[in-house]
From TrEMBL:
It comes from the Bacteria. Pfam families: adh_short. This is SDR family oxidoreductase. The keyword Nucleus does not apply. Transmembrane segments: none annotated. InterPro entries: NAD(P)-bd_dom_sf (IPR036291), Sc_DH/Rdtase_CS (IPR020904), SDR_fam (IPR002347). Keywords: Oxidoreductase. Coiled coil: none annotated.
Amino acid sequence: MGKYDQPARRPAVVTGASSGIGAATAIALAAAGHPVALGARRLDRCAELAARIVADGGEATAHPVDLTDPGSVADFAKQVTVALGPIEVVVSNAGTVEPGTVYEADPERFRVQVDLNVLGAHRLVTEFVPGMVERRRGDVVFVSSDVAVRARPFMTAYAAGKWGLEGMVAALQMELEGLGVRASLVRPGPTWTGMGMDWSPEDTARVIDGWVRFGHARHSHFLRPSAVADVITTVVNAPRGVHLNLVEVSPEAPLSDQEEK
């Protein structure tokens, strides 16, 4: 194998794979030829999706994982390696968001959200990246959010978590430079996912009104999870010698009926 060659078989891990961007990414990576291990707390949904991927001719397995539990993450890493072999690709996608203000948020709930968004990603790094460094190849993609650079109100710990995540990844990218392992950020804008779907109408209205008030809702279009998944697949399959450090993905505005004057 040459210095910049990729192996023919590149097993991938996707967390938060039970719905939204994670589920779409598992489908996209499998369609691109990657054996995929799906991880989430909702094992039943991952198992259903893995079965669909296998029925469509792909290779997929499903495993439970709670990224806030170090033991669960360690067990997950062992299980997926046994199932698929050394992991070449990790997509760190799990996250959570609750409506509300920072000053009214329960400190324990705030901590849990930051734990999942930052420490959960770090637990994946410690389990998978040392092996990638030893093999001198691998890709780790972290799904962030545009709140990391443009904080949105009334989302409790979400902005804090994503800001922390991007700080960690910025340092990681420098530490991995020259070691053959690419750490990348994909930063989506508003996306139709499972997050926020269980909010009350009152909470949803308060959040959206806050976005409008501070200029964060320029138009009504949202991204589809499959669009973000396609970007993640592109990042992972970039040729060796190319590092897509950061990709911002925004929903395109609807066509305007106004003609330019």
